[in-house]
Amino acid sequence: xxxxxFLVVGNTATTKPFSLNDLPGxxxxxxxxxxxxxxxxxxxxxxxxxDVYLLLLGGCDAPKSIRIAGSEVKRMSPDERNxxxxxxxxxxxxxxxxxxxxxxxxxxxRKNLEELLDELSQSYKVYYLREDGADIxxxxxSMKTPLFILGDHMGLNADSERIVxxxxxxIVKVSPIxxxxxxxxxxxxxxxxxxxx
Amino acid sequence: xxxxxFLVVGNTATTKPFSLNDLPGxxxxxxxxxxxxxxxxxxxxxxxxxDVYLLLLGGCDAPKSIRIAGSEVKRMSPDERNxxxxxxxxxxxxxxxxxxxxxxxxxxxRKNLEELLDELSQSYKVYYLREDGADIxxxxxSMKTPLFILGDHMGLNADSERIVxxxxxxIVKVSPIxxxxxxxxxxxxxxxxxxxx
Lengths: 197, 197
Hints:
The first copy, chain A, is an alpha/beta fold. Helix content of chain A is 31%, strand content 28%.
């Protein structure tokens, strides 16, 4: 099956260890956890062909980026608190510009958006999910090895958007109404799954 | 906009107050919380035309049922822990066969599956989400005021299924691959939203 990836930008997401009892208070870490859950998990299993990247832009230690590889990840379950525990562990580790392994399938670095896209555009075709894009149902048939970029509840700011537009093959919308980030991910998978079946 | 409802069966979901720090340990309450989140929330808003029903079948105090009305609910956010707090509060309240209001938009009762469906089939057409059903994309156009019934990670047991089949208009599948309950809900909304737009 074709590889797929998602890059979710957390505009205010904390880059330091945080309380598992208040994920919204950690710069809306709850959104990022749900995005990972929807991107990686299916019923009783994990999508091994999927990688998820998070870009955390909150606080004075930003940016940090996290990579979760579906083919390697272990002991992760789809609930927000479990996923948040993995992210918290990653944020407690010293890292630089290169990916540093936290444990099976989880990596952390200080890559910024441009550095992430420089790397990922070598392996993926980049699609930017935005509400004024082309209808996914019209374009999904031509997608090969796609990476989908999307923002959290704040979308992408103008600076981030300028960078993304340099790399994006196409701007795509997933629904006639404005959805939460994790719902967009579920729908992207659904449309691609229908093609594969 | 047409009303929509979901009924999610939690086969092992606890019927007593539980720890917010271990939702999977409360009979997979995490799944039910994600189902509510996906059913009710969109970006920066709540679907006021949606009601969600949970049937909790875990423990010696079962069954209990919970109703969350999108048009009335207040102070709910889409993260699992917040939603779990609302459910926990409902489970701490004495109730009988009639719906008892917990607070805005949240109700609890001791209705069982048959009693729920007796009530809901007065207002909704009942669809049962199961992996061997008709492709949703083929049948979504004819759905009016639908109620979708689905199980948690264990599906529905044989007894529950016999009851549901008495009320179900049609058995519908939402994806070629086996998905988590909350993903099925996101996709059902997506297909209906495309029709409405």
